[in-house]
């Protein structure tokens, strides 16, 4: 079933809103330590605990409004619950920091499997946004696959070698900027392999 169209601002708010709230809450609580049931929790852990239900609520609202969730949204929600929950339960921020690595590895591997089968699984997700010739989709899929693996490696380097605050800035702004910059650099490919309106129809 095709997704229902909703206001783009509403969609953006539901997708990006929880991340912005996480960032703002972290800045507010990053230097504080909370004692709950005799256990001390740093602000990062408390913010993570609040982020999980907020993200699930926004994902649920998005599903209610559109009647559809992409595989990426579903997998992301599951990993947030699992690794965010482990961070809170074990009082260990490392699990939550690993989450982006696993997300990018999973989708990089998924695209790679499709490529080995001679298919562009990226096309199934994005075809409505930018109609391309078959060759264009294969080229773009190879590049996006490489991007996901590169981002997975970069996330590992950042969280393992730098401070939590640096990682939060990277997670909030760096990853988004990297993906945006990547697609901006693909403009030549989009022009070369774009389908004419008649062909797309």
From TrEMBL:
Major location category of this protein: membrane
Places the protein is found: Cell inner membrane
The organism's place on the tree of life at top rank: Bacteria
TM spans (from-to): 12-29, 41-63, 69-89, 101-117, 137-154, 166-185
Keywords: Cell inner membrane, Cell membrane, Membrane, Transmembrane, Transmembrane helix
Topological category with respect to the lipid bilayer: Multi-pass membrane protein
Record's function text: Plays a role in cell envelope biogenesis, maintenance of cell envelope integrity and membrane homeostasis.
HAMAP family: YciB
PANTHER family in UniProt: INNER MEMBRANE-SPANNING PROTEIN YCIB, INTRACELLULAR SEPTATION PROTEIN A-RELATED
GO cellular component: plasma membrane
Name this polypeptide is given: Inner membrane-spanning protein YciB
Membrane listed as a keyword: yes
InterPro entries given in the database record: YciB
């Amino acid at each position: 079933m095709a997704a229902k169209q909703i206001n783009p601002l509403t969609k953006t708010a539901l997708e990006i809103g929880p991340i912005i709230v996480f960032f703002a809450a972290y800045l507010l609580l990053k230097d504080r330590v909370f004692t709950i049931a005799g256990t001390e929790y740093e602000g990062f852990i408390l913010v993570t605990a609040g982020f999980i239900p907020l993200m699930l609520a926004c994902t649920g609202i998005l599903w209610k409004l559109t009647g559809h969730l992409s595989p990426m949204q579903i997998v992301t929600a599951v990993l947030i619950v699992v690794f965010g929950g482990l961070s809170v339960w074990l009082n260990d921020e490392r699990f939550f920091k690993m989450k982006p690595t696993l997300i990018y590895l999973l989708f990089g591997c998924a695209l790679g499997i499709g490529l080995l089968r001679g298919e562009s699984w990226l096309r199934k997700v994005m075809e409505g946004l930018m109609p391309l010739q078959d060759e264009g989709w294969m080229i773009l899929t190879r590049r996006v696959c490489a991007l996901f693996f590169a981002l997975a490696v970069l996330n590992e380097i950042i969280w393992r070698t730098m401070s939590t605050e640096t990682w939060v800035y990277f997670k909030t702004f760096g990853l988004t900027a990297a993906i945006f910059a990547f697609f901006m650099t693909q403009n030549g490919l989009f022009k070369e392999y774009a389908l004419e309106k008649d062909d797309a129809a």
